[in-house]
Amino acid sequence: MSSDRLRARIYAAYTSATNAPLAPDTLDGFAPRAAHLNRLIAEHFPADRSARILELGCGHGALLHFARKAGYANMSGVDGSPAQVAAAERLGIPGVRKGDLMGALRETPEASLDAVVAFDVLEHLTRDEILDAVDAIHRALKPGGRLILHVPNGSSPFGTLMIYSDLTHEVAFTPESLAQLFLASGWRKIECFEDPPAVHGLKSRVRALLWRAIRAALRFYLAVETGSRAHTVLTQNLYAVAVK
User: Are 118 and 56 in contact (CB under 8 A)?
Assistant: First the structure.
């Protein structure tokens, strides 16, 4: 279990205590992430641009920035790292405030949100904290509302790269473990999706094609070992959408 002491130390320097800085100096620095985040918005955000959306663990506001550019004016974010919130302020991204996940959810009126986004968040929580968070998010969402997740994929042959890339990570997930968690917690359904290279030019198109070939080889290996062809989510991270 991550101690509060460890979390406090790491989160206080979250944007700087890395080999490469997490937050860019200007909004132009978001360009390498644009295709990836725009795909997330296009594929999984509510169709209604007036939807009320809360992002938990929003970091320095990259997803908020692209969501607003896509027309989602009713989205806000909360993050527990003062360094991340300061970076959002420096970049001029509105709607980012400092706060802990559970505190933000407790302050949210019941059945008031159309969607909640937790991008690289649940893996930072202990199992008991995950249960509390899932229940609190369920309470805050309207009937039919959705939780959009991005988490390390324990089903990936290289999923350990993601789970061990951050000292504050506690757990990885698989489509099966996410189904256990959400269906046992009163959610109506959950779907899981891969997170392959987003195509936005020649190099990324080549990467996407190579990934398809590698993925086919991995599925063949797993089918030989297990006798099952059910292994379909193999990227190091996965997306999931749970519906209340």
Answer: yes
Parallel, antiparallel, or unpaired for β 113-119 and 141-152?
Answer: parallel
Query: For residue 77, which of 98, 91, 48 has the smallest C-alpha distance?
Result: 98
Structure confidence at residue 2 (pLDDT): 53
Helix (H) or strand (E) holding 103: helix 101-107
For 156-188, write each residue's pLDDT tens digit: 988 888 888 888 899 999 999 999 999 999 999
What 3-state DSSP class applies to 68?
helix
Distance in angstroms (rounded) separating the CA atoms of residues 9 and 20: 18
Q: How far apart are CA 134 and CA 173, in angstroms?
A: 14
Q: Which of 113, 102, 120, 7 lies closest to 60, judged by CA?
A: 120
pTM here is 0.91
Report the pLDDT value the prediction gives residue 94, as an integer from 0 to 100: 94
Those residues whose C-beta lies under 8 Å from the C-beta of residue 58, and which sit 6 or more positions away, are: 64, 77, 78, 79, 84, 88, 96, 117, 119
Q: HEC profile for 157-185?
A: CCHHHHHCCCCCCCCCECHHHHHHHHHCC
Q: In whole angstroms, how far apart are CA 137 and each of 34, 59, 129, 200, 236?
A: 27, 19, 12, 33, 25
Which residue type does 3 have?
S
Write the pLDDT tens digit of every residue in 130-140: 999 999 999 99
Q: Please give the radius of gyration of the chain, using alpha carbons only, rounded to the nearest integer.
A: 18
Q: What is the pLDDT of residue 1?
A: 45
Tell me how far apart the alpha carbons of residues 216 and 229 are, in angstroms, rounded to a whole number: 11
